[in-house]
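Q: What does the assembly look like in three dimensions?
Context provided by user:
Components: two
Sequences:
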Amino acid sequence: RGVPYQTVTLIHQSMVKRLPEHVQVDDPAVVKRLAKKLERQQIPLRSDYGYKVSLFSHLHQYSRKAPLTQLLSIPSTVIHPSIVRLGLQYSQGIVAGSNARSVALLHAFKQVIRDYTTPPNEELSRDLVNKLKPYISFLNQCRPLSASMGNAIKYIKKEISNIPSQCKEEEAKTKLLTCIDRYIEEKIVLAAKAISKYAIEKISDGDVILVYGYSSLVNNILCEAFEKSRKFRVIVVDSRPRLEGREALRRLVQRGISCTYVLISALSYILPEVSKVFLGAHALLANGYVMSRVGTSQIALVARTYNVPVLVCCETYKFCERVQTDSFVSNELDDPDDLMVTRKGKTQLENWQDVSSLGLLNLVYDVTPPDFVDLVITDLGMIPCTSVPVVLRVKNLDQ
Amino acid sequence: MELQAVLMAAGGGSRMMDLTYNTPKPLLPVGNKPLIWYPLNLLERVGFEEVIVITTKEVQKMISTDPKVKLDVKMKLDLVCIQEDADMGTADALRHIQQKVKTDVLVVSCDLITDAALHEVVDLFRAHNATLSMLMSKAHEFTETVPGQKGKKKTGEQRDFVGVDGTGKRLLFMANEADLDEGVVIRKSIMRKHPRMHIKTGLVDAHLYCLKKSVVDFLADNKSISSIRGELVPYLVRKQFSKSTNSPKVIDETHQNLKKNDKIQISSRDEELLHLTQERSCWNDHRGDMSDAYHGGRLRCYVHIMDEGICYRVNTLAAYIEANRLAPKLFDEPAVHPSAVVSERCLIGADSIIGASCQISDKTSIKRSTIGVSTTVREKVKVTNSIIMHGVTIEEGCNIQGSVICSNAVIGRGADIKYCLVGSHSTAREHNSKIAPEKRLTECHRAEVNITYHYKSITYNNCHKVSK
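A: Here is the predicted structure of the complete assembly.
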């Protein structure tokens, strides 16, 4: 009666995880809590924009024309200048792509650490972590954090907390800076090299490879394969409104790879020619689902129908403990005005806000079930989608 | 610290000598506040806590001694004085304070009156890691008649040609008509990189610049550049596309040479990270050719062009009058100062401003005008569309229309002044006299002037009789 009941409740409490705030925007209590937290950290609250489609009303939707900096003071005193610059670059899309965002984040954190001085009677290991919290809230307001960024932040916080208290400030700072450099070197640069090595084994001469949008990793693989004199050609599939495929196309053609460019609506027409599909990932979820740019699940679905192998390339630092089976629960809503297009001087959707029954939805991510993915190429090797939880467990044991 | 504000208040006001003869330009009253208050207020509203003000000794003395000049700002002002006769350009002044400049600077001119959202300019500077970011505005026609001007406003101002790219933010070309011999010459290297350029001529340069610290260090080494607007900005805009900037560039070389050895290592390691970010990011500022974002160029100049809103540079008489009309919109103080003694039987229009300690007597009518501090207006005076500065006495029965009366002047009984400019400390005295249109009186130190008919002529100092 006494002990067993207590043990059961204890386990129950540790299993129940709180829902993150960014997927509870339609709950006023949560919004109020968030506003209070931001006020305490002296970060301005960014307000939502436009009518949200009801299925996604639990997510934030911001406008690019209302940046967070208009509510901040110039020069920024509360937030470190390099973090303000980073937030601006995120919200304007100048730094886009999972790897780019993580590297930029770590670069900004290096500046913050360099400019940091421990106040008297405080310990670096605790104070620096507290200093980073408002910065992370700020960046979250500019653009929701990606899974890779979340993992990088967890790593840094752990490293900072592990600094022994008798360590001198200069020494501690140098140690942290080298940790960050090592993290980037290992998890991003060397991981990319390892993944290219595995992936090149899978590319044979005469292949027709289909890629979707822009993935820095997949581009890297294709360029390396081309340098190792594999003969293949690439089909770049692109979709509105981001049209990231154009940038992927430019970089591949610049190297000399022969490419074809289609929009996603032509996918089923072009698939009979394709021999392999290489996809990049934003994150790999704990149940084996692949979270990537919106449209990826369609590519995987149609490729499965045509029996074309689908290979997902993803570094291990993007593996995330979240579990998701659909694209509604947790996603990102981009600026709806991006969907407006001006042709011959006329913008048809110019006054979309005046039409009460019209909502513009600009989703950023979607999830692909593991049944559609044949292989995941990571820096640990080539694994099936269902082995992701194993990798996560091994990683946790390491740490 | 992210940005340091530098306010340039040492200019002479060479285009409105009639006004600045006695009062230095930064202290000219606009809406009963000194001109320098407006940019200081803008900086304070945006969140600056300290400003470096470069000014002359005369201005500094007047700020500290004259009770009428109240700056009313909470920011810390670091006044740097330069000699009045040193003939320093704005770039020279920036070079002068090079030791005080520790980070990137925001240079503002003292004659800027605007309600622009400064974050637009600074965001361009931050997001694109730009070397220069500036503010410009669409020019508005001045509607008020200017005293002392003959007929239509002559186009003495040379046009500025400003070339921007498709987004309207990147500055590609800037030249003044005076520097161009026959036509606008655009280099092929610019056209190759930016095939679509919009060239605008009707823009007012607000003289508000965000400059990187390396530019200030560059100025220290290049003493030949003396004006920011005239020489430095066109130089930077041109340098964006020069071949040498796309490999070890002129400006950053001086920047790196000034750094200590250990810091060079850190910065070069960080450059690698920045390069890594750009390599992996899928953003490009242009499309249609094979080059990377920004065409691989490291020097970038940006401009924010305001479509609507107030943006004036008070450097001519016409701009001064227009600014007085619009200044009340920029602050919330009541139009009639509480310490002014205004009698009940006078008519004060809604768009007039009455300064502190004024005395307005009965049966006066004040419409669309600004009355300065400690001014006395006697009975039956009609003031329309005019600017009356501080300490002026207007005797009974005067009729003042469309004029500018400078400080401490005395307008005698029954004077009828239309579209004139009366200089400071002068007396326009005559019973039932009329000063005909387009007359200018510049007088100083209490000389008396007897006025008879005047037509389109200008009187200068110390004359006793104004002749035809």
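Follow-up: Chain B touches chain A at residues 1-4, 46-49, 106, 117-119, 122-123, 126-129, 266, 269-270, 273-274, 276-284, 287, 290 (CB under 8 Å).
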